[in-house]
Predict the 3D structure of the following.
Amino acid sequence: MPTPGQSQEREHEQQSWHADQTLVSGVRFRTGPGMIGRMRAVQVVELTGPSGVRVVEVAEPEPGPGEVLVEVHSVGVSFPDLLLSRGLYQLKPEPPFTLGVDVAGTVVEGPGSGFEPGARVAGVIPYGGAAERAVVPVSAVFPLPEHTSYDEGAALPMNYLTALFALHERGQVREGETVLVHGASGGVGTATLQVARGLGARTIAVVSTDEKAVVATSAGADDVVRLDGFKDAVRDLTGGRGVDVVLDVVGGDVFTDSLRCLAEQGRLLVVGFASGQGIPEVRVNRLLLNNIDVRGVGWGGFAMTRPSYMRAQWEALLPMIESGVIAPPIGATYDLDDFGRALQDMADRRMLGKAVVHVR
Ligand SMILES: NC(=O)c1ccc[n+]([C@@H]2O[C@H](COP(=O)([O-])OP(=O)(O)OC[C@H]3O[C@@H](n4cnc5c(N)ncnc54)[C@H](OP(=O)(O)O)[C@@H]3O)[C@@H](O)[C@H]2O)c1
């Protein structure tokens, strides 16, 4: 049974990624005579969270038109994996199903996709990537720069494209503005610190521990403050003015003080509810009195219904990747057999930067 907090979280997450389920549910498998390829995959066998995750043998998928078959080297560990394993995501595949959102590897085949076999790529799908081979729609496959590793490639797509969508498309962050980032040592948090810097903004990171402060600083935060008392710390750091943008992946208790941190015409970007503390509510007179906005950020629903959008976003990030402004911090790596343990670490709030699983 989901706890009340989990139910609320599900309600929120349902608004965060309205992916087209046919992207994965339409996958065909090589089952014809002489074509039976088997592979290892990380599957949810029961919706009990990380304990219901197993590595099993399944048939290899076969790409259809407009799809690319990728030999997966690394797969990211993502918050949606955790929600999917608990049956709390807006997509509700029936177990058994394969986890895995962000992948990096080499192209096996993708006729007409523009990708040659052997090309190094990253890709993003709603689920199904935590396996030796994965099928990805061509619109969600991105060429990996020469110096970007597979681990970095598997840390990039969802978090960095979300950060760019949040800051640029929804937050309209301008050069010289200040961005306060909650959950700043996590996957979306570190991505936001780096993309904000790439857009010429100053960042203030909010973290809960010393260890997480080190992660945020090395990810490029200009200032780091503690979750306890963050509002007063932000006031001091901004000379009482407040920040132009708050990016919130945490939800719950931080919400009201985040609104209080906003300067006039500031924007609070609602990205996620990792704390599981429930849906924050806003007294809208606060928005009127201070001329501030609360804006929702649902990257998946936006990007996956606009076929050229993700590739355009990737192009926008490439100069930041190549200049080193974007360099995803990989806090931990796991073997494929330990995907469930990685998810448990995420559930226990132990992630530092992005965790990546080695498939081969
Ligand atoms: N809207 C979108 O388009 C979109 C896209 C991608 C992800 N998301 C959502 O964004 C959220 C964050 O994802 P992520 O990949 O950054 O996760 P993550 O790497 O686990 O980071 C989450 C951060 O939240 C903080 N936190 C506070 N309470 C927590 C709790 N009870 N459990 C776990 N973390 C807690 C932690 O920082 P401290 O310990 O320092 O507080 C942690 O660093 C998720 O809800 C995810 O679904 C939304």
Q: What stands out?
A: The chain is about 30% helix and 25% strand. Residues 159-297 form a domain with the Rossmann fold fold (CATH 3.40.50.720). Residues 1-25 have pLDDT under 50 and may be disordered. The first helix runs from residue 4 to 13.
